UniProtKB/TrEMBL annotation:
GO cellular component terms given for this protein: membrane
Name of this chain's protein: ABC-type quaternary amine transporter
EC number: 7.6.2.9
Domain of life (superkingdom): Bacteria
Any one GO biological process: glycine betaine transport
Keywords assigned: ATP-binding, Nucleotide-binding, Repeat, Transport
Family indicated by similarity: Belongs to the ABC transporter superfamily.
Coiled coil residues, start to end: none
Amino acid sequence: MSNTTVPVSDSSAEVAGAEIMIDQVVKRYPGQAKPAVEGITLQIPAGKIVMLVGPSGCGKTTTLKMINRLIEPSEGRIVLGGEDVTNMNGDELRRRIGYVIQAGGLFPHMTVATNIGMVPKMLGWDKQRIADRVDELLDLISLDPAVYRDRYPKELSGGQQQRVGVARALAANPPVLLMDEPFGAVDPITRQRLQDELIHIQSEVKKTIVFVTHDFDEAVKLGDWIVVFSEGAEIVQYDTPERILAEPASEFVESFIGSGAGLKQLTLARVDDVELHDCVRARPGDNAKDTLRLVEEARHEHVVVVDDRDRPRQWLTRRQLSRINVIEEHTDPKLPIVGNRATLNDALDTMLVSSAGAALVTGNRDKLLGVIDVETVMTAITAAREAAANASDEDSPIGINTGSIATVDEPAGQSGNETGSAEELR
Ligand SMILES: Nc1ncnc2c1ncn2[C@@H]1O[C@H](COP(=O)(O)OP(=O)(O)OP(=O)(O)O)[C@@H](O)[C@H]1O
């Protein structure tokens, strides 16, 4: 089903994203010799995540903030879901566009519930509807409403504050979410978790998300599309992560990707995307010799010991099994486990640390799903690279530098920008 056909009924039915068109937009700051954004036409497809990356000062934040008019464009139009919002009242516009900044930007003197419910309150929702929406969103971001709704931001971890920031931006169900380096202030592990959660949330809400980051790996992991900017918001490449990695448009993009493009491919695929190996399972209390026979019959090397809720507890080799009579009740704290939503990169990390060359994969409620090994990961990279090379250009959104005087109809080359449209770059 296309994102634009999701029905809008009540607060719980998420509105799918709306297309954003940044149409021939220029930004000149007073007293600056050159425009910060020299002239850009950028189509952000509905329901997709578009990442803006580029060196410091290239105009990412300026471009982002012109969408919700926290910064007024000097020239050009912003069109949201087909509606020209360039001259609309800015406050009203911003109630239609969720905005997430570093550390969540929460109001410290307000509870989590009040923070999340702020825009709905401004929109005149009644108390019960706001309370229901707050709980629904806390559920969505995996924070127990009963525990967290009455807390103050200082009583939350950095990662939790950031998640509440996302919930607040989603509160009034806006079609568009703007995210300005939202995960810049948290440690790498929390960051990875927040990224995974955003992917999960987006799979449910399907908003149009524009996301500014310094981190190319983050762009590859989260983006449906990536815009690589150079100074003055010049679009150097606007393409899928797969294609940017497989075919960087210039040396500038290559330098931005950094080393290890092959490894970065691993952040594109998730454990969910590959076929897992089956495994032999046993329970504490099972006879070790019988279990060993099952392992041998299956021609496996290991057995996974699971608890009564199917959560992995031990991973025993044939040799370990042969030395015991009964499988004990014990949890190995060092089990290499990855969730099914983890990227292949995360899976590989787990395998390498464990030196097992494989990892156990768990799904909902930590239930064991199967085993992933290094070979599976390598096959997936090769397949991803081939798919990227063969991908069609048909659905590419528009991304050109229009210059301050050029029009959209003009070929990008005439605006003096040699690396204008996504089409031209291929
Ligand atoms: N309020 C302002 N007044 C004058 N110049 C500004 C203003 N805000 C930004 N600039 C300039 O505009 C250019 C683009 O800034 P912008 O913040 O959009 O870049 P950025 O790519 O988001 O940078 P960073 O990655 O460092 O956050 C920079 O040269 C910056 O110095």
